[in-house]
Amino acid sequence: MKMNSKLLNMLLVAFAAGTAVAQAQEGFKIAGTTPTAKDGCMVYFDYQGLDGSHSDSTIVKDGKFAFGGAVTEPNFARMILDHEGKGKYMIQNIGDRLYFFVGNENYHMVIADSLKRADITGSPLHDEYVAFLDEIGGCFMAIMDEAGKTAASISNDDPKFNEKMNALRTKYDTILENRRQKELAYAKNNPSSIFAAEALRDVANTHPLSEIEPILANLSEEVRNLSMAKGLASRIEAEKTIQIGNIAPDFTQSDVDGNPISLSDFRGRYVLVDFWASWCAPCRAENPNLKKAYENHKDKGLEVLAVSLDDQNTRGAWLKAIETDGLPWIHVSDLKGWNNAVAVQYGVRGVPQNYLVDPEGKIVASNLRDERLHTVLEEVFGNP
Fold this sequence. Notes:
Helix content: 40-55%
Low-confidence stretches: 1-23
């Protein structure tokens, strides 16, 4: 049967799309092999799935292990091989770890001695990621591991301890800044690569967003529609709009009973929009202080609207934290973790974070914690 030219062109375009076509697969499959001496070892795998964050695990058996799942788009993932049975939380920051991007593709991992040095085949996305790392100067976490090992080798008793540590910081600050410059160049030269968005996301942690904005705008439409690019665009917009003196953007999310709550519902009262999460230790530590401030000023017109960055997997922990910490104000969330729509809208990159909004809807203060929270509220409402 003769193929018409229109269909042929469509197939050629699809073939050239590469990574985008790979994501059309329904899910991913990871098949790993290890020496049989690793039988019984645990393998842990963390990634962002269709319904939020996932933390999976499996046991090496007969020199093999496997994972399966699905993602809405390629995203950063972490795998850990527990060689000594210490448990995930003992080794998650120092153990044998592999950081990579997972997409809906097939991955074959061959481990000879270390997971971080595994040979990975079968995934065009991973091949592109490796090429990206080669171009920019390596994996950020690998660089940090190297710096950490060097720092650990310097004895606290060394008379030149401070001098050596300062020299180490200067060395790795230079390495990382050189890496960021290469990331900027990569993003400019590869506007259709998803790793252009990843490069800009990393650079945005230290460089002015005004430097990032024109490069982001030049990325392909497909890349700009990725969550990491959208999040970066929201950060850029938030930097312009989420400012003291500006009107706080309105939003609506569901409370613990599923009822829609809007920021505009609080017009006529002061409201502290508080971003937190049940898993955030500093947030939980600050809750008694916030509770005290609320009790002191609630009768004078203060409300607290807490936006949680919990997800579907930690919904129970969120509700439990509200009960355990005795938090009497209104709580909302869309249970999308760091992709919480309000957090993205407000450019939130860390918790706890908050904004004090006046009765007219204007932002009048931000990042109120510890004694500063009480000082600012006493300026607004007077002493309790």
